[in-house]
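Researcher: For the annotation table, I need structure tokens for tRNA N(3)-methylcytidine methyltransferase. Please keep the output clean. Sequence:
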Amino acid sequence: MRRTVGAEEGDKEEEEAEAQYHSKDFEWEELRAEVENDPSFCQHLLPFQPTSTSSSSSPQAQSDSDAWKRFHIRHSAGKFFKERRYLLKEFPELASCNENSKVLEVGCGNGSTVLPLLRGNENIIVYACDCSTETVERVKEIIDASNIISIKQRFHPFYCDLSINRFPTWLACNQCRDIYLQSQHKSISDVTMNNIMDSNNLYLLRESGCCNGGVDFITLIFTLSAIPLQTMPVSIKECFSVLKPGGLLLFRDYGLYDMTMLRFELEKRVGFREYMRSDGTRSYFFCLDTVRDLFVGAGFTELELEYCCIKSVNRRNGKSMRRVWVHGKFQKPL
């Protein structure tokens, strides 16, 4: 049985030896039956009637991005997040990949994913983006503060809001990537796709076969749920476009009937299985069929897709927490 180390958004109190959890502490179907037969949860099951204020147009997407920027600025100090050290065990391909394998971390936040990747495999080169220039600068400072030259040399952060923008050209083209690396002395916010190559040149490069996928892995770790459901298909297709043929997209995100979903109040619903927190940040809760439709619809081949059902105990109040996440591996066909 697959095991996962640590618990996402679990206790944030200690830096002691990591606790281990089975990925099947309980059966998701049993949780589903319990939730769907409990009248107190009926508001989560009702169809959602959209209003003019719940659309996911470009202004709404920009509003979502601004909310996450404020969120990361507010939590830029301290240990709000733990490092996701379980990733190399959940996705062993990252631990055994070839030398100079390139990983793109989408939505890097404070670096809780990139740090264990860089420390755990010296062969990995990590490109990491986020929708906040302040967050990107902060994670770069965290990496620089490690004082480990080999890690700093293998980490390349950049700004990109995937809910609004396309990836920069250099992710799929060696020549463009070299230009980007030469410009690392500039501010992160200055290194954008428009500084390197305009959209017409990008189109010509792709038509000529120059830009047909440049990274070996993409990690989408608790990122896709943070953007509006309507924009997810375009964002996933953009990931597909910069992944090498045969490359892997590694996915982990909130699952249907996770504890946090059931805690949302009715007025926080902004869509079916989609909620808005009081700080303006968004969260979607995935069922397996939705994930499958999104990724297969973008051209990926499904390799693994399952619920991770983990029971943990809150050390502060002793209450048991049933967490549900979706684990997935998808491949770009050769």
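Researcher: And a one-line annotation?
Model: The chain has a mean pLDDT of 80.
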